[in-house]
Amino acid sequence: MYYNMDFEKFFSGLLATIYLFLRRIVLLVFLPYKTMRHISEEKDFGQIILIFITIAFYFFLANGLREYDYEPFVLFLMTVFHYIATVIFFYLFTMMIGSHDAKLQPFLFTFAYALIPTILWFSTNSVLYAVLPPPRTLSILGKAFSILFITFSTAVLMWKIILMYLAIRFSTKLNFFQIVYVVILYLIAILPYSIFLYSLRFFRIPFL
Questions:
Q1: Is residue 31 helix, strand or coil?
Q2: Are 80 and 115 in contact (CB under 8 A)?
Q3: Which whole-number Å values give the CA distances from 27 to 21, 63, 115, 174, in the listed order?
């Protein structure tokens, strides 16, 4: 009987986590500021696990549509590394400028949810590659598709930038100019690394 109660408690908790996870993805589109603020106060680590399960599922599915040069599990581990490195980078910067009371937890949640636009873009790109593989024609339909894809990619990029800014703001509590400064430092560090990954054919575009 106790096992049944424990299972029911676990199952109900899992359903609640999945519901909250999916709900927040939708709310991040329409209410990014308010939603990211709530995410920065989150304590349910199951949501982070769901995000990385989704990423792992993407890599294995995408590998079936277009085989990678490396095993999907290797790419997944690299993505986990990128996430952890990003969290540590911003957390340490916050500690260095004097915010010694900064908590690690908001960084973990906000930067995990900031990966949602990345997952969406990569997933869409993989599906379109399977449905409409290149080379694509210069016909009216081909040009229309290119315009739609560029528009979609631009919108997702803007969404990504907004979520990253909010993730940094609510995690670090820095002001606007400090955020700009730390982002510039982050880009200085990440650009050579991205080029290095590209040269080794890991990622054409880093999964960040």
A1: coil
A2: no
A3: 10, 30, 15, 24
Residues 6+ apart with CB under 8 A from 130: 65, 66
Q: What does the alpha-carbon distance between residue 54 and residue 177 come to, in Å, rounded to a whole number?
A: 34
**Which is higher by pLDDT, 116 or 68?**
116
Distance (Å, whole) CA 191 – CA 32: 26
Give the count of beta carbons closer than 10 Å to the beta carbon of residue 116: 20
What is the rounded distance in angstroms from the CA atom of residue 176 to the CA atom of residue 167?
Answer: 13
Nearest CA among 15, 34, 12 for reference residue 24: 34
Give the residue among 126, 94, 136, 105 at the shortest CA–CA distance from 43. 105
Structure tokens at 159: 């969404």
- Angular region, 201: left φ>0, alpha ψ -120 to 50, beta rest: left
User: What does the pLDDT read at residue 46?
Assistant: 94
Q: Mean per-residue pLDDT for 84-99?
A: 89
Q: What is the pLDDT of residues 122-167, one digit of tens each?
A: 999 888 877 776 666 666 776 777 888 899 999 999 999 999 999 9
The predicted structure's pLDDT at residue 136? 60
Q: DSSP string covering 85-121, please?
A: HHHHHHHHHHHHTT-TT--HHHHHHHHHHTTHHHHHH
